[in-house]
Amino acid sequence: MNTPENLFYTKDHEWIAVEGNKATIGITDFAQSELGDIVYVEVETLDEAVEAEAVFGTVEAVKTVSDLFMPLSGTVIEVNEALADAPEAVNDDPYGEGWMIKVELDNPEDVKTLLNAAAYKELIGA
Fold first, then answer.
1. Distance between CA 121 and CA 99 in Å, rounded?
2. Cα separations (Å) of 116 from 7, 47, 86, 119?
3. Which residue in 118, 112, 117 sits closest to 6, CA to CA?
4. How far apart, in whole angstroms, are the C-alpha atoms of residue 14 and residue 69?
5. Segment (H or E) for 76
6. What is the pLDDT of residues 22-68, one digit of tens each?
7. 3-state secondary structure 89-123
8. Residues 9-46, buried b or exposed e (16+ Cβ, 10 A)?
9. What is the pLDDT of residues 55-101, one digit of tens each?
C-alpha cells in the first residue's frame, strides 16, 4: 500500500497535499483498492465553500458509491476535469493524475488536525 510521507490523511481515506493556503485532495491508495474499479467521479462543489468533514463529491465504483469528505474547510477552486473521461486514473495513480480537487484553505494551520503517514498506516493496519 502506497502512503507517501509528505501528505496528510483523514480517517475517511482522503489525502491532502498543502502548499501555503492551497491544497490538493484525493482518495488514498487504500481507499481506491477497497472500492475496486472506479467508473465515475462527481464533484459539483466548484467555487463553493465547503466545511471540514462535509461531502464535496462522490466516487462510484462497479459495486458501490462512496461520499468524498472535505479534510479541511475551504473553497473548491479547481476540479480534475480529466477524471470525467478517465476515472480509472484514481485507481492507477491516486496521488498523481487521480487527484480530485484543489482548495483554497480557510485556515492552513488546521492541517495539524490531520493524520500523518505513520498514523494513517496504523489506522489501516499497514
1. 20
2. 7, 28, 29, 5
3. 117
4. 7
5. strand 74-79
6. 999 999 999 999 999 999 999 999 999 999 999 999 999 998 999 99
7. HHHHCCCCCCCCEEEEECCHHHHHHCECHHHHHHH
8. bbeebbbbbbeeeebbbbbbbbbbeebeebeebebebe
9. 999 999 998 999 999 999 999 999 999 999 999 999 999 999 999 99
Q: Tell how far CA 19 is from the center of its chain.
A: 15
C-alpha closest to that of 111 among 24, 29, 4, 1: 24
Cell 463553493 belongs to residue: 48
Domains of the chain plus CATH, in order, are 8-116 (2.40.50.100)
The count of residues in the chain is: 126
Extract the C-alpha cell encoding 12. Answer: 475517511
C-alpha cell, 75: 473553497
